[in-house]
Amino acid sequence: MPVVQSGARLFIAGHDPEKDGRLVYRGRVGEAVAVAETGAALRLATQNALASARDAAGSLAHLRCVILTAYVSTARSDAVAPGVLEESLTLLAMALPSSGRPAAWLRPTQGLAAGMAVEIELLLERTRATRRAGAVRRRGTGARAVARTPRRSGGRTS
Length: 158
Fold this sequence. Notes:
Elements: E1 3-6, E2 9-15, E3 18-19, E4 22-23, H1 38-57, E5 63-73, H2 86-95, E6 103-109, E7 118-126
Parallel strand pairs: 5-6
Antiparallel strand pairs: 1-2, 2-7, 3-4, 5-7
Helix pairs in contact: 1-2
């Protein structure tokens, strides 16, 4: 499942650098994939993650990125220099303009599923409360469903 919603948060599971159903960047960075291509691979994976978020939420409006996690399958330490995230961070800033800069994790790995060179995960959060269908109404709404405060016992508990 690529997206799971919990309250106001959307957890976007690992997305790969795929285009038209084909993995564009396959293999370890520094071996099969050039170190210079790491940023482009991460951007493509971020683009795919945002597409899943849009499909799940209906729109990217009123979403902000809290955490960006990037996994890089690498054979070399220079493939995980912080600068490789700039293209992904720029894309997030353009797609989610009110978002601000998220916390970013850049994680080197020995390998990823299906030979992916990189993988992206996002934690997004709704910035505006939207009323969901079937939400419980508050007290004072007549015959509609009422959310009551819990009753307290008269006795002391401590």
